[in-house]
């Protein structure tokens, strides 16, 4: 495993047109992402080789599972930044969070607690995978009412919307940005997810393309995107999240 720290892959994949990745789980031990700093460094090194120059990692905040706070996330970020510096890896690394729309999130919002955001006061949120919330549009609209820009993580992975993905057009029209997982275009999550991902692209509803990388195998699977020449022409807005632009 130590070899990961010193190996820079020579690969044809070029994701420099994205500039920034805004969804990943690179902070060790605080959610279901990387297990240690060595794996984080290996993933970051490989993503830099793909052309990313800015990574905004987004640990889960799911109060029943991962009770992360700004303090725990800041500590994890410092750990990984220090490991990157020790490995001689120079890349801009920041952190926000991926908030599950649970009661804890509603309490934070109602209490006016500062949220961990992407640039532009964007809040990355996720829904349950198996059972739809009855008031999803209302919750997302309430986020806007509190002065934030909601970004819905991996909409293509919510199987209960596969039969009628037009819900995403409605959410987009109401002001919610949508973030597609890159691996959804590779078949990684199954045919239904890939089909919905392609529908979202076809209808120009995707704002951001994110890796949602939890482990190094996810980063390695991004190589499958070399077959997707159309992605460079898609109007992804990842560049808006990085001061360096593209």
From TrEMBL:
EC nos:
3.1.3.48
Cleavable signal peptide: none
Q: Spell out the molecular function terms from Gene Ontology.
A: manganese ion binding; protein tyrosine phosphatase activity
Gene3D superfamilies (UniProt xref):
Metal-dependent hydrolases
Q: Matching SUPFAM superfamilies, A to Z? A: PHP domain-like
Q: Which Pfam families match?
A: CpsB_CapC (PF19567)
**Reactions catalysed according to its record:** O-phospho-L-tyrosyl-[protein] + H2O = L-tyrosyl-[protein] + phosphate
Q: Which domain of life is it from?
A: Bacteria
Q: Does the UniProt entry include the keyword Hydrolase?
A: yes
List keywords of the entry alphabetically.
Hydrolase
Q: Which family does it belong to?
A: Belongs to the metallo-dependent hydrolases superfamily. CpsB/CapC family.
Give the protein's recorded name: protein-tyrosine-phosphatase
| Organism classification | Bacteria, Pseudomonadati, Bacteroidota, Cytophagia, Cytophagales
């Amino acid at each position: 495993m130590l070899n990961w720290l010193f190996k820079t892959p020579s690969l044809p994949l070029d994701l420099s047109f994205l500039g920034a990745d805004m969804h990943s789980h690179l902070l060790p031990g605080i959610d279901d992402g990387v297990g240690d700093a060595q794996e984080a460094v290996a993933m970051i090194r490989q993503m830099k080789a793909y052309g990313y120059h800015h990574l905004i990692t987004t640990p889960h905040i799911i109060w029943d599972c991962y009770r992360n706070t700004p303090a725990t996330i800041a500590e994890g970020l410092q750990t990984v930044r220090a490991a990157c510096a020790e490995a001689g890896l120079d890349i801009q690394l920041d952190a926000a969070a991926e908030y599950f729309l649970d009661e804890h999130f509603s309490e934070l919002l109602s209490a006016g607690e500062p949220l961990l955001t992407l640039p532009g006061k964007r809040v990355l949120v996720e829904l349950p995978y198996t059972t739809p919330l009855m008031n999803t549009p209302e919750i997302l609209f309430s986020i806007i009412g509190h002065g934030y820009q909601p970004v819905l993580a991996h909409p293509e992975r919510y199987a209960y919307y596969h039969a009628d993905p037009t819900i995403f057009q409605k959410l987009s029209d109401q002001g919610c940005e949508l973030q597609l997982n890159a691996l959804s275009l590779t078949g990684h999550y199954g045919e239904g997810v890939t089909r919905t991902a392609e529908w979202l692209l076809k209808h120009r509803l995707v704002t951001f393309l994110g890796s949602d990388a939890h482990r190094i195998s996810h980063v390695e699977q991004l190589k499958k995107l070399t077959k997707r020449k159309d992605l460079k022409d898609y109007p992804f807005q990842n560049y808006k999240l990085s001061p360096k632009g593209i």
